[in-house]
Task: structure prediction
Amino acid sequence: MKRVIFITAPEVFRDEEYYKPKKVFENVGIEVITASTKTGELTGRFGFKTTSDLLIDSINANDFDAIVYIGGGGASVFFNNPHALKLANDFFKQSKPTTAICIASVILANAGILKDKKATVFIDGKEALIKNGAVYTGADIEIDGNIITANGPEVAEKFGKIVLKALNC
Result:
């Protein structure tokens, strides 16, 4: 069984960017594990609740087939989080799908893995991507090698399906 790790802010994550891709994965039997800066209950911007199973600093990239950074305002807690940045590099170096939706693409940029890569982000993160060497496209979804970025909640389900395809499912 394939396993995907969702990196989710403890609060103010974008609800549909979490539950729509998760449903896509679980519908085909992929196990989704949620990690954050705390374990226990997490609350989205619009009140959706989920549970964090792991602390971000206890994740080993070898245990998962892909990583998904969930967007929303709360994702800023990971912009300079050393564990979040290291994980992005670990998954990227192992050629595993390294993915982010909405503002969470800034995490990938700050990790240094978007240099010379096509990427997209919620418009507020455009400058951070450019500053870190990404080729910002403004597209809804961008795929460049094993990196997949999406620009917001409107494409959350499509994003999930594209990551699913990258997992060969």
